[in-house]
Amino acid sequence: MQIWRAILAHPTGRIGAAIIGLYILLALLGAVGLTPHDPLQQFRIDRLKPPSGTYWMGTDLFGRDTASRLMVGIGQSFIIAFASVGLAALAGSIIGLLAGWWGGVADGVLMRIMDVLLSFPAILLALLIIAIVGPGTFTSVAAIAIVYTPIFARVVRGPTLSLKRREFVDAARTFGSSQRYILSHHLLLNLVAPLTVQVTLALAWALLTEAGLSFLGLGTQPPAPSLGLMMSEARNLMQQAPWLLAFPGLTIMLGILGFNLFGDALRDILDPRSQERSS
Amino acid sequence: MSYLARRLLTFPLILLGVSLLVFFSIRLIPGDAITAMLGTEAGLLTPAQRQALAAYFGIDQPVVVQYGRWLTGLLRGDLGVSVTYGRPVLDVILERFPLTLELALLSMLIALAVGVPAGVLAATRKEKASDVGIRVLAMLGQSTPNFVVGLLIIYILSVYFGFIPAMGAFTSLWVDPFANLGQLIFPAITLGFAFAASVTRISRSAMLDVLSDDYIRTARSKGAPGRSVIWHHALPNALIPVVTLSGVEFGYLLGGAVIVEQIFALPGLGRLTLDAIAQRDYALVQGSVLFIAFNFLIVNLLVDLAYAALDPRIRLGAR
């Protein structure tokens, strides 16, 4: 819990934690149905109403409540971001650990495969995967996970290479620890710090990518609310109903900002070298 | 083996990997090219006509044979024929590439022109109001998706200035430079926004690193004026990470900016690829993705070389 105290003492970490906390609360409320209105219900006589006491953030072309849709949309974005980054971190760590541990040809082959994946622009790789499987929540998760796996593989492989030559690893081997035990207990535990930082920053990128995919109509499918899709639907209405653009835009931006601030703070705390630089 | 030689050797290997991945993954997409091309009219084709079309586009052979043919064609600079455009893939790509290249260059120019001075300013005024302000802006810039920036720009232009950026047909720089710039400047600002934010952050932290070095203290104690120390002694060394970051970002931008091209209705490489995937235009998807990956890898190689040139301490072999 020391780490939490450090984050809350960090000026930007505090702001980041507050934003993420607020978003998770809103998403949970949205998930259990505690929204101001039903996010899917169309109040036909109240179409394109500006923000008011009844509709805090106005209504869209179909008379649906923007605030309620945003709450559910945040949940949707968070589920995709957390699931995809979790998968990417898991797959990337395993690949990076094994590549670093085995070395030689296996290392070369694994990392060249990662290089191949990295030489595609992220959104294009995701598009290709979506074209194969068809759009939807699970596809978005898989596509974003594949896009970010190589980054985790790289983050883990470097330190693994230097850690495996350290004395405590030799000692563990001498005592007869199995390879799996050494990898999971000695190496992985030493990689928790860089991995945590990377996971937080990757969550910010995953939110960006998810918003981009749903903006292109390739993520969450309507009528389910999603932040990117709401922006895309608001494009042609920006003159009559600017609030339809403003609120989802701000929501996406603030959410990503939260993870960026939190990740930066974590890096300052866990990597003393970077702290000297930025404070 | 030196680092450079190893890089040059793995280069074709990675390209081969990209070609395999694209070639086989696009064939996993449900639906066939001929139906995608002709729509409902495909139903009117006799089996013989369908067979003839498939043979014309070379998609009647087993997949492995198709791959072999495509690969040997590649070596001759022949990327095949696009089903949608009925023209050689390379021609279609090269037609779209100038726009993408110009947009990427313009965005990088904006990012460097804004980001480097902002980063240097923030580093020299560490913890003062201007530093905090710049850091907040940079953080916001990094957190804003480019479609939010793009739509905001369009909104401001149309509502407050009654101006709608010219969309549709692209005017080449050589035909009408002003019309060309008018078309590209706003998309470039959109892309340059987040890019400038990253440049600012990395310039600031690199500058702080360098400013604490001994040789800067020496220069100062010898009485070199403050401004000269910053711009002549510190900046060249602080630029090394900036070059790396800009190179990687530029490499990605050369792959086309799908979303920004979509918002501003620009016919760039990103939308070409997006449409080609939707159309099941196998040859075009393969060609454009390979082209994009090739550019990205070349830019990265050049960045590594520039890295060595900027920092004489780095001997490529020693890394």
UniProtKB/TrEMBL annotation, chain A:
Organism: Devosia oryzisoli
Family: Belongs to the binding-protein-dependent transport system permease family.
Keywords per UniProt: Cell membrane, Membrane, Peptide transport, Protein transport, Transmembrane, Transmembrane helix, Transport
Localization: Cell membrane
Protein name in UniProt: ABC transporter permease
Boundaries of every ABC transmembrane type-1 domain copy: 74-263
One BP term from GO: transmembrane transport
Membrane topology: Multi-pass membrane protein
Main subcellular location: membrane
A cellular component term, taken from the record's GO annotations: plasma membrane
Entry-linked InterPro entries: BP-dependent_transpt_permease, MetI-like, MetI-like_sf, OppC_N
Transmembrane segments: 12-34, 78-101, 113-132, 138-156, 187-208, 241-263
From TrEMBL, chain B:
Membrane topology: Multi-pass membrane protein
Classification via Pfam families: BPD_transp_1 (PF00528), BPD_transp_1_N (PF19300)
Superkingdom as given in the UniProt entry: Bacteria
InterPro entries linked to this entry: BPD_transp_1_N, MetI-like, MetI-like_sf
Principal place of residence: membrane
Signal peptide, first to last residue: none
UniProt protein name: ABC transporter permease
